[in-house]
């Protein structure tokens, strides 16, 4: 499992300086969580009223405060990125900025989003509804793997027979994920939905790999089944978003907006108002629902929306439909707020009081309500066959299912104890007698019956125990953009003034400490230094103070200065002007301060 130390920190954009907020908002809008180079020209920032130097100092502050991370490639190049864990909060904080183009003033049309209050089931035609609960499905598949095993070929791939069996027993469908265009090894062996589920289990650490087998990790399994459903959904959703969702900024913004700006669970809402840069997406509503197999090297914004909506349906997180006007609508089937990492503590504890269990029917069927905790569903899946997935899942006890359980070390006594503890109306007498008989037959067939006090201790020993066949933790099989080339513990930032502003120690302090009127040649030197450092000049014209971000000097004796002018009243007026030294009285070079 991954350690999310970031959750323990208190994050608030209100604690940032004005320049830091502007830089963070701009970087978030342009890059979301994708890599970017820290090298920017002044032209990037002038529309926000910042000089390149101010932006550089703000970036230093953001890096030191943890809002921006740095990674280093093997050849030494540094790349910056905003941590994914912060994207939901930034989506909420900077929704208007990201949504430029959504309405005439660039804001998210809240009224359109809130139309969901008026959308009822009577007005919705559901087009794509889920057939799987991904967290429950992972438990089902792991139970099957424990019983049947996943042997590897000499090439290191899972046998095709096992892949076919996985396809037969899973409720996941290949069609929901094809449009994601996920890259992975051996696509001729693994259908995309099987590749995703294996990658997900490997990345969670629930599966491990030896030279000859893929098997369930006992230690990680025990921690996993004692979590709550909501924390499982959170972990699964975020891995899926990071590993299987398109990494381009538009896609990341759409995913975050769909999660953060949506109403509560089970409320239908229109998709279109939440699309970033909607003016680029002029399509008919029916086109929004088509998910054709586009060229993965040239995916459009439309395809990004389509593919992610279908994937969410395929994972059981939501469903898609349209209302009586033809508007494409979506609703979450899990609380969207719960899918943010910050919504869950690092240690997710099981509820002390179990208020739900299972119901054993006289026909050997077992009814499991949806609120039953994961550890009950897990153990039931080891000793009974899953018959129906629905709001109320149905399992069936059979001679074969009991024999398989005993074979892996889940003894008859443990099965009966488990059922007794959680059966809300007890075990029917004839069912109990059948269990006793099946258990005796099972143990008679075992050459060496296992009497482990805890059957799960046997789970981790399915692979080879030979000394030369150590277990190797795998991070998955899907190709992703890795943000941990060489993660740096300390911020990689230059803070010394002489490095930030080359030649700083060689200029007179009065250039930036005092207001003064200088000779034309000295004023030209000061203006040249401002251009070199990409910083501002502060000019006094009568009683007015004017800031200019210069970018060009023309002439020598009678020289002129070109640049973007802003005013001291705080308005970010990016007005380009040409000034002569005669246009101002005193002048001062602005050297941005940093903490």
UniProtKB/TrEMBL annotation:
Residues 358-439 form the Helicase XPB/Ssl2 N-terminal domain. InterPro entries: XPB/Ssl2_N (IPR032830). This is Helicase XPB/Ssl2 N-terminal domain-containing protein. It comes from Paenibacillus tundrae. The lineage of its organism: Bacteria, Bacillati, Bacillota, Bacilli, Bacillales.
């Amino acid at each position: 499992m991954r350690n999310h130390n970031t959750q323990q920190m208190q994050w608030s954009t209100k604690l940032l300086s004005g320049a830091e907020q502007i830089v963070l908002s701009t970087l978030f809008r342009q890059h979301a969580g994708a890599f970017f180079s820290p090298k920017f020209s002044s032209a990037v920032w002038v529309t926000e009223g910042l000089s390149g130097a101010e932006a550089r100092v703000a970036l230093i502050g953001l890096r030191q405060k943890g809002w921006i991370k740095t990674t280093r490639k093997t050849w030494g190049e540094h790349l910056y990125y905003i941590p994914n864990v912060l994207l939901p909060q930034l989506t909420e904080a900077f929704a208007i900025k990201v949504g430029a183009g959504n309405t005439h003033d660039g804001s998210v049309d809240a009224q359109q989003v809130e139309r969901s209050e008026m959308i009822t089931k009577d007005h919705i035609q559901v087009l794509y509804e889920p057939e799987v609960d991904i967290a429950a499905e992972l438990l089902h598949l792991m139970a099957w793997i424990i019983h049947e095993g996943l042997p590897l070929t000499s090439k290191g791939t899972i046998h095709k027979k096992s892949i076919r069996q996985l396809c037969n027993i899973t409720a996941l469908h290949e069609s929901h994920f094809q449009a994601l265009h996920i890259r992975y090894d051996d696509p001729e062996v693994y259908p995309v939905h099987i590749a995703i589920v294996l990658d997900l289990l490997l990345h969670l650490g629930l599966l491990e790999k030896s030279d000859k087998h893929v098997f369930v990790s006992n230690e990680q399994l025990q921690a996993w089944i004692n979590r709550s459903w909501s924390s499982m959904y959170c972990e699964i959703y975020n891995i899926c978003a990071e590993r299987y969702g398109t990494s381009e900024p538009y896609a990341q913004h759409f995913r975050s907006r769909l999660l953060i700006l949506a109403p509560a669970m089970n409320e239908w809402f229109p998709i279109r108002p939440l699309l970033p840069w909607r003016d680029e997406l002029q399509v008919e509503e029916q086109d929004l629902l088509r998910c054709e197999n586009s060229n993965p090297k040239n995916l459009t914004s439309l395809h990004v929306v389509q593919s992610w909506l279908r994937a969410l349906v395929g994972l059981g997180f939501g469903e898609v439909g349209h209302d009586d006007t033809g508007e494409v609508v979506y609703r979450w089937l899990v609380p969207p707020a719960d899918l943010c990492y910050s919504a869950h503590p690092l240690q997710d504890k099981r509820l002390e009081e179990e208020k739900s269990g299972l119901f054993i029917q006289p026909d050997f069927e077992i009814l499991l309500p949806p609120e039953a905790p994961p550890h009950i569903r897990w153990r039931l899946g080891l000793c009974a066959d899953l018959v129906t997935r629905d709001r109320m899942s149905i399992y069936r006890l059979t001679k074969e299912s009991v024999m398989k359980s005993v074979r892996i070390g889940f003894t008859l006594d443990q099965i009966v104890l488990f059922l007794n503890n959680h059966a809300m109306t007890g075990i029917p007498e004839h069912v109990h007698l059948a269990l006793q008989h099946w258990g005796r037959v099972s143990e008679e067939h075992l050459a060496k019956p296992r009497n482990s006090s805890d059957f799960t201790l046997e789970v981790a020993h399915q692979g080879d125990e030979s000394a030369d066949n150590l277990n190797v933790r795998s991070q998955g099989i899907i190709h992703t953009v890795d943000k941990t080339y060489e993660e740096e513990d300390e911020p990689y930032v230059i803070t010394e003034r002489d490095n930030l502003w080359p030649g700083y120690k060689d200029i007179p302090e009065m250039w930036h400490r005092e207001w003064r009127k200088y000779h034309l040649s000295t004023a030209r030197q000061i203006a040249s230094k401002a251009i070199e450092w990409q910083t501002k000049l502060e000019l006094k014209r009568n009683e007015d103070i004017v800031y200019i971000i210069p970018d060009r000097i023309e002439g020598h004796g009678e020289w002129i200065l070109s640049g973007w002018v802003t005013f001291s009243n705080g308005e970010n007026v990016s007005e380009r002007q040409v000034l002569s030294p005669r246009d101002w009285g005193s002048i001062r070079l602005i050297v941005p301060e940093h903490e």
